[in-house]
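To assess whether ligand presence alters the predicted conformation, the chain was also submitted together with protoporphyrin IX containing FE. Input:
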Amino acid sequence: MEDSTADILEQLKAKFDATSQDMNTFLKGLSVSNYITYWDYIHLDTLLTLQKPKTDIPDEEIFIVYHQITELFFRLSINELKQITEFQEIDSEFFIRKVLRVNRYFKVLSHSFDIMSKGLDPKQYLKFRDALAPASGFQSFQYRVIEIMSTELLNLVEKSARSQFTKDSSVDEMFEHIYWKKGANDAQTGKKTYTLIQFEEKYQDMLLNLAREMRNKNIWACYERLKEHEKPEPLIEALKQLDADVNVNWPLSHFRTAVQYLVKGQKPLRATGGSNWREYLRPKIQQRMFYPELWTEEERLNWGRNKIDVIFSEINS
Ligand code: HEM
C-alpha cells in the first residue's frame, strides 16, 4: 500500500528533526524549485563537450568516444568490486551477484571491440594516431585499479620475477616488479618509455596506496575468508569467468585490433606508447591470472593459447 501524504510528511519531519532543520523552509524551497530534466540529471551538455579530437579526421571521434565508453564500464566494474571489498560480512550470494555484474560489463567490452577493429577507417586511424603519441590506453588508471582490487599483488608481478616473492612479501617491493612497469620498456632502447614515466608521475602513489590497502581486502582475500561451505560452484565459476574476461577475452579483442592496424600487410608499426607490444600484449606470454588456484594445470598452461592461434590464422589468411 502506498504511503499517505500524512505518512510522508511524518517521515520528512523525522528526517529534518534529526538534523535540527526547519521542515517548512524545505517545503517552501520545493515549491519554487524547478523540475529536474533528463539532460540536467545526466549532465548531457557537459558530456557532449568531452570529445576534443586532436585532428580534423572524422573517425578520431569514434576512437575518443569508445575509449570513454570503456572507461565508464571500468568505472561500473570498480563500483561492484568496491562493494565486495568494503563489505565486512559478505555472503556468497551477494559476492556472486557483484562478480556477475563485472563479468557482464567485460563481456560487453570484449564484444563491442569491433567498433575499433571494424568500425574505424584504417587509413584515417593510421593518420590520426600519429597525433596521439605518447598517449596510450596503457595509461588507463582504472584498468590498473581493477587488477589491483581483483587479486593478490603477487599475481600481477611480472612472470620472471614471481619466484622471488611469496604472497606475504612486502607490497612495496612486489609493486616495483608489477608486470606493466616492465612491459612499458621502449621496444628499441629498452629504457622506460615516456608513456610510463608520465603515468607513474600521475598515478604511482595512488596505485601503491591502493595495493597496500588491498593486501587483505582484494577479491581473492574476500573469497578466502568465506567458510568452505560458502564457496559454492556458481561463485567459483563467476570468479573464473572474471579471470578469463579480464585477462584473456578483453585483452585478445584488444590485441586482435592492434595486430590488425599495426601489423597486417606491412612491417609492424611502432605503438603510440612505444612498447614492445607484440610480446607485451599477449595473454599467453604475460600469464596474467587473478585466480590460478581455481584453474587446472592444463588450463593454466593453455592460458589464452587456443584463441591467439585463431587470431593469427585470421590475420594471415
Ligand atoms: C585501434 C585501437 C587500439 C589500438 C591499435 C591499441 C594499441 C595498443 C598498444 C600497441 C598497446 C601497448 C602499449 C603501447 O605501447 O602503446 C596498448 C595498450 C593498452 N591499451 Fe590499447 N589500443 C587500442 C584501443 C584501446 C581501447 C579502446 C582501450 C580502452 C581503454 C585500450 C586500452 C589499453 C590498455 C588498458 C592497455 C594496457 C594493456 C596492458 O597493460 O596489458 N586500447 N594498446
